[in-house]
Design brief:
Layout: E1 18-20, E2 27-30, E3 36-38
Antiparallel strand pairs: 1-2, 2-3
Organism: Streptomyces griseoaurantiacus M045
Protein name: Ferredoxin-like protein involved in electron transfer
């Protein structure tokens, strides 16, 4: 298992000075705008490669 993925920049201000938050897994704090946010992986989409942009054709 790999380590958790880290965001490259703050989604609010774009600053790169981020630190893991104290709120637990997925929580991050931005030193630039003093905001805290949480990242969460929701899962894979059920449609897979047969999405509307492929028009039902296999790649």
């Amino acid at each position: 298992m790999s380590e958790r993925a880290a965001p490259f920049y703050c989604p609010y201000c774009g600053e790169e000075d981020l630190r893991p938050g104290e709120e637990g897994h997925g929580a991050w704090e931005c030193a630039g705008c003093n905001r805290a946010f949480r990242l969460k992986f929701l899962g894979l989409l059920a449609r897979g490669l047969d999405g509307p942009d492929t028009e039902g054709k296999r790649i």
